[in-house]
């Protein structure tokens, strides 16, 4: 009985304190300063939200997702121009230098963006965490590709010795012959072999670039 009385006394002491805390918090929420309300960020008309994991307009979220998917495709196409054109690649050899941190950063970012790319853009509408991760990955991919390409354009072949630049120029001319469908298969194959000798010790063509050249020549031979 004594224990029960003590328990009731404790509850009587705690209830007023709890009520006081409740009303204090409630008053801060309802009656606090109104001159600095907390506002949700508003995207400018042409701005793309960096994240779709907000309470923003679903139309803006969809716009951000579709623009990101399109930007991903555009950046892939820009890189593909180098992969498919070995002669162009030799104008900007830094793009083949996987030892350069900018180039490595671009390739890592591309891999991450490709892994996170959705099968359908609609799939990201109901998965904000995946959408945010994908938007961030593509932003990093585009930024790192721009950085690598800008440096490659700035340098061109200037960081090679005079002799190396001459070898690159000869290799470029030979590769153009290897890409020329009007040349015979034998001429194309021989030109690619000679180009390899010129590039030996200078740079290595990307696997996809090399494979494209070889497939072109093999198709000519097979035809």
UniProtKB/TrEMBL annotation:
> Quick check: keyword Coiled coil in the entry?
yes
Give the originating organism. Mycolicibacterium sediminis
Q: Where is this region: Disordered?
A: 34-54
What keywords are annotated for this sequence in UniProt?
A: Coiled coil, Membrane, Transmembrane, Transmembrane helix
Residues that span the membrane, as ranges: 6-25
Bias class Acidic residues marks the residues at: 37-46
Residues in coiled coil: 161-195
What name does the UniProt record give this protein?
Uncharacterized protein
